[in-house]
Amino acid sequence: MSVSPSYEELKGYVDSIRVVDTHEHLSQEPERLKQKVDLLATFFSHYASSDLRSAGMPEEQLIEIRDPSTPLEERWGVFEPWWEKIRNTGYARALEIAVRDLYGVDGIGPDTYGRLSEEMRQRNVEGLYRWVLKDGSGIDVSINDTIVYDVDREFFAPVRRFGEFLTVRDRTGLEALGRQVGGPIHSFRSMVSALRSEFERTSGKIVGVKIGLAYTRPIHFEKASFSEAEEAFNGLYRAERFKVHDTSEVWKIVPEPVGVDLRPMQDYLVHVMMEEVERRELPVQIHTGLQEGNENILSNSNPELLVNLFMEYKDARFDIFHGSWPYSGELGALAKNFPNVYIDMCWMHIISPSGSRRILSEWLDEVPANKIMGFGGDYLFVEGVYGHSVIARENIARVLAEKVDDGDYTMAQAKKYASWLLRENALRLFFPDGL
Ligand SMILES: [Zn+2]
């Protein structure tokens, strides 16, 4: 790395910024403390595990290495050859930074994995989150995307997905939804009013709404008519086939709608949600770009598919996730074009650390600096948040230092943008009344 005087000074400043983290999937600390933690079961629950799969590791081996009931030495033997193949990626780098800084272990290797897992167990006690998130990562608050809204406000502010409405696929799903909202749902009309009441009931407890549909369908949400949506809803009841739901706990048959296109129903519900968020001044976070896991359809998540929403809901604020990686050029143009479109770099610095620097540098030349959110860890376990935060701070300092070296910004300007990226922009968007 080229080290310039501007880098040293900026890095020191960037490291001192208390971060507002725009996106996590963390369980509450008491839940985490109940888990049996070790290197493989905990750190390979997502991200790096997807790299293991894309490197060629068979699915059965991935399941095997995560199972804490098998002795760690045995699992390490299966894991090690694949680890060597993925150790180059941003996901692996975030983990190695975390184990080095948090647990004092020099990387993940044959000589360290035992001690590391022991250190993890010893630290898995009350105070873990304070130690990792507040002290280690310098995070003031993390916007958290889980099914729990009653969160520990010392660490979290929740967003809500309303996924129980958007992902209903069959009658049993509708029955479950009915139980949750306090009464059975027999018509699309009552589903819509239940969605509106859920907004009424929870909007004061959340700082935004999340839409994660890019995992299961294209994110173009057409303006469906009520009757088209109702037709799709009614299709849920037309199922004449059943699938057998057979687990050790319960045996039952579940209706399986065949050939029912649920998109008009989802489209309609997304527009209802947009109406509600616009009216209630809640920002909406939308997944775009790469989907976590393997073998999804990337083009479903192109941010250009959202343009009709940007045009229609002018008073809504769209927080577009993951820098739309790899559609980052498209997202830059959209954020430049639409006053209601914001860029969110959550997850991005570890998908590609160097790619994120290149793109952030371009965005800073292209998009007003008040519109870029520079960090969201996007992890299920806190150690990952720490590793990611180190890479993000380094990336932001390096990109801004280069601009200072090139004579594009003064040092004072660069420092101002650093604090906007890591804190102020997210505060303005999600916490207009302060933390
Ligand atoms: Zn996420």
CATH architecture of the largest domain: Alpha-Beta Barrel
Oligomer: single chain
Amount of helix: 40-55%
Enumerate the strands of the largest sheet in spatial order, edge to edge or round the barrel. Answer: 1-2-3-4-7-8-9-10
Low-confidence stretches: none
- According to CATH, the homologous superfamily of the largest domain is Metal-dependent hydrolases
The major sheet is characterized as: 8 strands, parallel
How many helical stretches?
Answer: 20
- Report mean pLDDT, rounded to a whole number: 95
The level 1 CATH classification of the largest domain is Alpha Beta
Number of strand segments: 10
End-to-end gap: 36 Å
Could you tell me the CATH topology label of the largest domain.
Answer: TIM Barrel
Q: What bound compounds does this protein have?
A: zinc ion
Elements, N to C (H/E): HEHHHHHHHHEEHHHEHEEHEHEHEHHEHH
What is the 3D form?
globular
| Class per helix and strand makeup | alpha/beta
Strand content: 5-15%
The radius of gyration over CA amounts to 23 Å
Domain count: 2
Topology diagram in text:
Layout: H1 5-16, E1 19-24, H2 29-34, H3 39-43, H4 48-55, H5 59-65, H6 72-86, H7 90-103, H8 113-123, H9 128-136, E2 139-144, E3 156-160, H10 163-166, H11 171-181, H12 188-202, E4 208-211, H13 226-235, E5 242-246, E6 251-255, H14 263-280, E7 284-286, H15 307-312, E8 318-320, H16 328-337, E9 341-344, H17 348-351, H18 353-366, E10 372-373, H19 382-405, H20 411-430
Parallel strand pairs: 1-2, 2-3, 3-4, 4-7, 7-8, 8-9, 9-10
Antiparallel strand pairs: 5-6
Helix pairs in contact: 1-19, 1-20, 4-6, 5-6, 7-19, 9-19, 12-14, 13-14, 16-18, 18-19, 19-20
Bound molecules: zinc ion (ZN).
